[in-house]
Design brief:
The chain is α+β, with helices and mostly antiparallel strands. The chain has helices spanning about 50-65, 70-80, 100-105, 110-130, 140-160, 180-200, 215-225, 225-230, 235-250, 280-285, 305-310, 410-425, 430-440, 450-460, 465-475, 500-505; strands at about 5-10, 10-15, 35-40, 45-50, 165, 175-180, 270-275, 330, 345-350, 350-355, 370, 390, 405-410. The chain has 16 helices and 13 strands.
């Protein structure tokens, strides 16, 4: 386990930046540097010494956090109806840290909750140092820092409902203030307004790992779309539509050939990506015996999906040939179409018999046919082949699992945000939703309800960080799903995570969220 120390709030906190120590996990450590001038203990801040270096370091921190399979990703995806990490024998047991997310039985001492709280709030403070006038950032540098601060603050607000805040010149004996949900919303909006005014205009480009007007507008649209949760009042749906229209005007558009969007090539969909390696999105679900050309230990045989989520896609029960189903559900190669390019590994949802690149049927470690099943006996006690696996980034694509190209904001999401804003303001979203469905090879809908909209977002954006946010906005996060703890069903306090125990002890201005 890799442990390092960093400052957050008024205390020194320990951050364990590691994956769980099992054969099915990896870890990624992002080294942090502090180029701020002055004496923090005394509350003397003279600005960061090298703004561009500090900004690059902040991008690097965010990249590392988004590329992880635990922490931020787990809180937003594993805690939904879309993704679960079942225990298989002793693999992925990890003292229940994954299972409690899926069942909504987490506690204020959950390690992923603490790590994510520390990471996001650390990002906010580092961005604040860059933004401070003493750092003398250019308008563009400040706009990038404000975008990154807004992104981290958005998820602090979304996950916990409040935002602790520290000024760079606060002395060490001053506890961070705590912004209310409304204050945090206003704070994010102010940052994004500055960012939109000062960031460069850039359409589809290989440089979109840096912030642009389109990325800031995308996040502003997310903020408005979720405003009712944060402020008690519906956001400006006309503004959401206008923001998406401005993104479209920059040259972004829906792209066909769904799985090509997740390659590292420039496409019309990608508004913002991070340069994190995509290995965690590939290997965490694949079986140990599936091809792993740039990962010698094979797959990690963990992440899966529920049958009900798989069944929300249009297509036959058997996903083997990719025929008669919408493109987004993917396909599994068989003896007739396995080849070296796809390594015998399918796309999207992997179910049924799995094959090697020569078309031969794979077996599990005991020699039984490797047949991924929809059914689980439970969250524990599973065999090697229980559960449908998900894969959007493919190891056979150029760059393999080490390519630094993970999507965070993409145009199809913006397209659906506009459709939702139209629906929420009394309009008809059917034409827009059907434009996307037709492109993806799905049957057009006769009309679009809220349930249809949520389902469409799930089908388009699975494992792209947004499932929890979407389910809460549509009032479905506390509903029942397979293996959820019965006592958590209908418990709206689960719409927020608990403030970590360590944070409460270090900052008396924080108050624990209801229900914990």
């Amino acid at each position: 386990m890799k442990i390092r120390m960093f400052k957050h709030g008024r205390t020194i906190a320990v951050l364990a930046m590691s994956m769980i120590l099992t054969t099915s996990c990896t870890d990624l450590e992002v080294e942090l540097t502090d180029s701020a001038g002055g004496d923090e203990d005394a509350g003397i801040f003279t600005g960061v010494e090298d703004v561009e270096s500090s900004l690059n370091g902040l991008y690097g921190d965010v990249t590392g956090q988004l590329g992880d399979q635990a922490n931020f990703f787990a809180l937003n995806e594993v805690a939904t109806d879309e993704t679960l990490v079942p225990t298989r024998g002793t693999d992925w047991g990890d003292n229940g840290i994954w299972r409690t997310l899926h069942t909504h039985t987490w506690s204020p001492s959950h390690q992923f909750i603490l790590n994510t709280w520390n990471n996001l709030n650390q990002n906010v403070f580092r961005a604040t140092e860059i933004i401070d006038p003493l750092s003398q950032a250019t308008a563009v540098q400040e706009a990038e820092a404000r975008f990154l601060r807004a992104f981290s603050s958005f998820f602090v607000l979304d996950l916990w409902g409040v935002q602790p805040f520290r000024n760079p010149d606060d002395a060490i004996n001053v506890f961070p203030s705590v912004l209310s949900s409304q204050e945090t919303y206003d704070f994010i909006k102010q940052d994004l307004t500055f960012a939109i005014d000062n960031l460069p205009t850039r359409g589809p480009s290989g440089d979109n790992n840096r912030a642009t007007k389109a990325a800031a507008r995308f996040l502003m649209a997310k903020l408005e779309l979720n405003a009712e949760r944060y402020t008690g009042s519906q956001g400006d749906m006309a503004a959401v539509i206008s923001l998406v229209d401005a993104i479209t005007a920059d040259g972004y558009a829906l792209e066909d050939n769904y799985f090509d969007i997740f390659k590292q090539d420039v496409d019309n969909e990608t508004i913002w990506y991070v340069t994190a390696g995509v290995g965690n999105r590939i290997w965490n679900g694949l079986h140990y015996n599936q091809n792993s050309p740039d990962n010698g230990g094979g797959g990690w045989n963990g992440f899966s999906t529920l049958a009900e989520f798989y069944d929300s896609f249009e297509g036959p029960e058997d996903n083997s040939a990719g025929m008669g189903q919408e493109e987004r559900r993917g396909w599994v190669p068989d003896a007739s179409n396995a080849n070296d390019q796809n390594l015998g590994i399918g796309y999207g949802f992997l179910v049924g018999q799995q094959y090697d690149d020569d078309g031969s049927a794979l077996t599990d470690r005991s020699g039984n046919p490797l047949v991924f099943t929809k059914e689980f006996p439970g969250l524990s006690g599973n065999g090697e082949a229980n559960g449908i696996r998900l894969i959007k980034y493919h190891p056979g694509d150029e760059g393999g699992s080490f390519r630094g190209h993970e999507l965070v904001f993409r145009y199809a999401d913006a397209h659906l945000m506009k459709a939702e804003a139209m629906m929420r303001s009394g309009g008809d979203a059917t034409t827009m939703v059907n434009a996307l469905r037709t492109l993806r090879g799905a049957t057009p809908l006769g009309s679009v309800s809220e349930g249809d909209m949520l389902a469409e977002r799930g089908r388009e954006l699975y494992v792209e960080f947004w499932r929890r946010n979407d389910m809460i906005r549509f009032g479905q996060y506390t509903r029942d799903w397979e293996f959820k703890n019965a006592a958590s069903v209908g418990d709206d306090t689960k719409n927020l995570y608990p403030i970590p125990v360590n944070a409460l002890l270090s900052n008396p201005n924080l108050v624990q969220n209801p229900g914990y």
